[in-house]
Write a structure and sequence with these properties.
Strands 8-9-5-6-11-7-10 form a seven-stranded mixed β-sheet, sandwiched between helices. With 556 residues, it is of the alpha/beta class. This is Abortive phage infection protein C-terminal domain-containing protein.
Length: 556
């Protein structure tokens, strides 16, 4: 499985630049090739992207900061952030890190700007000159020179020249600094934007009590109608620390909804209640235990998502809920420290009833990282089970695709025996720290595409044994394909191009025919069915060896 790499990150960054910045950054009137135009436009977009993120500027202001072009004096964008007293000077390269020559132009341009030698700049700079003069004449303004580029690091000589410039400009006053904005920093900006901000909730507890040690906790009654209102305000954000979202009309949820509608006063007795964690609990002055409106920062329902969702479904269907519908709530203040108490509470409170192993993947920080990386390409990856999975890649889909392309016979056999074994025995291998969101998305796309091709082949077959092969041998075929066609499988693009689909279709069908022929020669005399073959580690290992030998001979 491929590690997150700069090539994959670069692909996603360029996607974002084209989508968000190309519409407001037109092509220059130059007699260039299409490739030269695109490279220039990407670099100018990257400069605007830097301003938007460094100064929290709106996109149009960021685009207006660009002075890149003839006689730009080595500076691609200039922006005075009056709020934070920062004058941002950007050199952008949508490719390799700037070399010594590029950086010398940048450093010389900064010197000219600081010393107000504005005649050395182009006409695009003149519209920003007033802002620059304001910045240079104002006390306390920090001048920040930034190299932003789609590479891993600056060269030693470039760093030395920037440090020399910093020492020179700070001889009498510490007014200049420089920043290295490499591809990791850029990608971090993109993924951070996909984070779900913690929510603050106000919740009324009746007849509540408090525990002070070993950590603060409150328990009391809450009105079901208030929970329905919270759900309609925040939806899935209520359950960000839970192992699953609301799963919709399952039997247990229908039973909860029925109680809320028909026996509201019995809800307290028939329901386990909710467990809520938060980073901070705030009580108003003069609070009374009979009834208090709590302010809960960093709120999450860690146990009881099905209860809250079911209550909301009744409220939304009927427009109201009886005031007699109340249930027990426990609120635990876990603070903001990065200890594991929140995870321990979530895990413990969700093991008292039967819960699938896959649900606990939601407690793995890697899953949230993968979700954010997928969202950079506007692909929804949902690692918490939910009733709403439309257009999303689910963790179940990801697991089976990752298993197919793991190159591990034991994992393939486990997937064929029982999918739950993937989460129970092989989770850390499939969802490793090295897995990237772009790889996850691509593997799922390849799996879905070829799975449909093999399904069409199964339907088209008239001979029972060949039908069974296409039914039960798909994971094995994909595993062999991933071993032999790694460059195709591991391209840095999330989506499949037409060329990708053509090649995958051809090699998939070709491999299927080869594998079927070899499998028949090995197992037909034993009258062994394909379901049994692909559930046997011994058979799978033997067949893999035979197939790989045959492929080696054909290539040799």
């Amino acid at each position: 499985m491929s590690k997150p790499n700069s090539k994959a990150q670069k692909t996603q960054i360029i996607e974002v630049l084209k989508q968000d910045y190309f519409p407001i950054i037109p092509q220059l009137q130059r007699n260039w090739t299409a490739k030269q135009h695109e490279e220039n436009r990407l670099s100018r977009s990257l400069a605007a992207f830097a301003i938007a993120n460094l100064a929290d500027a709106i996109l149009t202001d960021a685009a207006n900061s660009i002075i890149n072009g003839e006689n730009d004096n080595g500076i691609d964008a200039v922006y005075f952030d009056r709020t934070n007293n920062r004058l941002w000077l950007i050199q952008a390269k949508a490719g390799n890190a700037p070399n010594m020559g590029d950086n010398k132009k940048f450093c010389d341009g900064i010197r000219d700007l600081v010393h107000k030698r504005f005649q050395k700049f182009n006409s695009s700079f003149s519209r920003l000159q007033h802002d620059v003069e304001d910045a240079l004449d104002r006390n306390g303004v920090k001048i920040v020179g930034c190299n932003i580029y789609l590479d891993s690091s600056l060269g030693t000589h470039v760093v030395n020249d920037l440090n020399q410039l910093q020492d020179e400009l700070n001889k009498f006053d510490a007014r200049f600094q420089w920043q290295d904005l490499n591809i990791e920093k850029i990608y971090g900006w993109l993924t951070t934007k996909q984070e779900n901000a913690p929510i603050e909730v106000k919740l009324t507890l009746e007849n509540w009590h408090c525990l002070e040690q070993p950590r603060k906790a409150f328990y009391g009654l809450v009105n079901a109608a208030e929970l329905a209102d919270l759900y309609n305000q925040h939806h899935k954000l209520l359950f960000e620390k839970n192992i699953r979202y609301y799963l919709g009309t399952q039997d247990v949820n229908l039973a909860i909804a029925e109680t809320v509608k028909e026996q509201p006063s019995e809800l307290f007795y028939l329901n386990n209640g909710l467990t809520i964690t938060c980073t901070k609990v705030i009580l108003p002055p003069g609070h009374k235990q009979e009834s208090t409106k709590f302010t809960l920062e960093g709120f999450s329902v860690v146990n009881g998502a099905q209860t809250v969702g079911s209550i909301a479904s009744v409220f939304n269907a009927n427009g109201a809920i009886s005031p007699n519908a109340k249930l027990l709530v426990t609120i635990i203040e876990v603070g903001t420290q990065s200890d594991t108490i929140g995870i321990e509470i979530t895990k413990a409170r969700n093991t008292q009833n039967t819960v699938r192993d896959i649900y606990f993947a939601a407690l793995d920080p890697n899953q949230e990282r993968l979700r954010q990386e997928c969202m950079v390409s506007n692909i929804v990856y949902q690692y918490r089970p939910s009733a709403d999975n439309q257009d999303a890649i689910t963790i179940e889909q990801a697991a089976i695709a990752l298993a197919c392309f793991s190159g591990n016979a034991e994992i393939i056999v486990a997937a064929k025996k029982n999918l739950n074994l993937l989460y129970k025995d092989h989770y850390s291998t499939l969802f490793s720290n090295e897995l990237s969101g772009i790889t996850l998305c691509r593997y799922v796309r390849i799996f879905e595409y070829l799975d449909q091709i093999f399904e069409n082949s199964r339907k088209a077959e008239t001979e029972t044994r060949r039908k069974n092969f296409y039914q039960h041998g798909r994971l094995f075929i994909l595993n062999v394909l991933s071993r032999r066609y790694k460059p195709l499988i591991n391209k840095p693009e999330v989506n499949l191009s037409q060329d990708d689909m053509t090649e995958l279709s051809n090699v998939g069908i070709e491999l299927a025919e080869l594998i079927y022929t070899l499998a028949e020669s090995q197992f037909a005399s034993d009258e062994k069915g394909y379901l049994a073959i692909f559930r046997s580690l011994t058979d799978v290992q033997q067949l893999t060896s035979k197939v790989m030998q045959e492929l080696d001979c054909r290539l040799g």
